[in-house]
C-alpha cells in the first residue's frame, strides 16, 4: 500500500567466521542503505540504521531488547519504536521519516569515555 518494492531479509542462522564477518556486515549495511525505510524487530538492525542515518521503524520482539536499545536512540527523528504491529499503519500514515546524518559517534564517545577507559584498563 505504501511501497511498491518490498524486500525481506533474514539474517538469523547465517553463521559468520572471524574471516567473513566484516564483509558480511558491510554487505548487509550496503543493502539496507538503499532502502527508503527499514522495518525490523532486530536490535542490531535498528542500531545500524541509526548509525547510517537510514529511516527505521523498530518493532519490539519477544526478547524486549529493542525497547532498551531504543532508549539510547530516541532522540533520533529517523528511528521510530513501536510495541505493537497494529501501530505500524499509524506510523506509515504520518509524514515520511527522512534519512538523517549518521549517528553522532563523537558525542557517543564523549558520553561513554569514562566507561571505555575503565574497560580498556581491565
In short:
This protein has helices at residues 21-33, 43-52, 65-73, 88-93, 105-111, 113-121; strands at residues 38-40, 56-59, 79-82. It has 122 residues and is mainly α.
Protein traits:
6 helices, 3-stranded parallel beta sheet, 44% helix, 122 residues, mainly alpha, single chain
Can you describe this structure?
The protein is mainly α and 122 residues long. It is built from 6 helices and 3 strands, in the order αβαβαβααα. It has a 3-stranded parallel sheet with strand order 1-2-3, covered by helices on one side. The longest helix is centred in the first third of the chain and has 13 residues, at 21-33. The termini are far apart.
DSSP E strands, number: 3
Gyration radius over CA:
16 Å
Silhouette: globular
What string, H for helix and E for strand, traces the elements in order? HEHEHEHHH
Query: Low-confidence runs (pLDDT<50, min 5 residues)?
Result: none
Helix content: 40-55%
The structural class is mainly alpha
**How are strands sequenced across the largest beta sheet?**
1-2-3
Q: Number of helical runs?
A: 6
The major sheet is characterized as: 3 strands, parallel
Question: What percentage of the residues does DSSP assign to strands (E)?
Answer: 5-15%
The first-to-last residue Cα distance is 53 Å
Mean pLDDT across residues: 85
